[in-house]
Specification:
The chain has 94 residues and is mainly beta. The protein has one domain. The protein contains one helix and seven strands, in the order βββαββββ. The model has no long low-confidence stretch (mean pLDDT 96).
Length: 94
Amino acid sequence: MAIQITAVRLSADGATHEHITHLWWTNQAFGNVGDSTRAQIVAWIEDQAGKAYTSDRAGHRTEVAVVTPTRGEKYLRTRADGVWTNNLLALPRR
């Protein structure tokens, strides 16, 4: 199953990927929508082989992947053709 991330919430004191606290998503295959914390999405991707992506207006998908820093909590970021991108930060904020 793959979900499309449609919006994000960042902590009040941050503006980078590490500060994403909450994500809103749509499951196109089943037509359901939901929201999850960053930790829930990280666990779903790592433990349940979940797939997440963002999509632009032209329909191009960019994979959402888990980043494991040497310090701090795991976070999410998009990756296209092996290059880390900022697609999550370009999504609407809630």
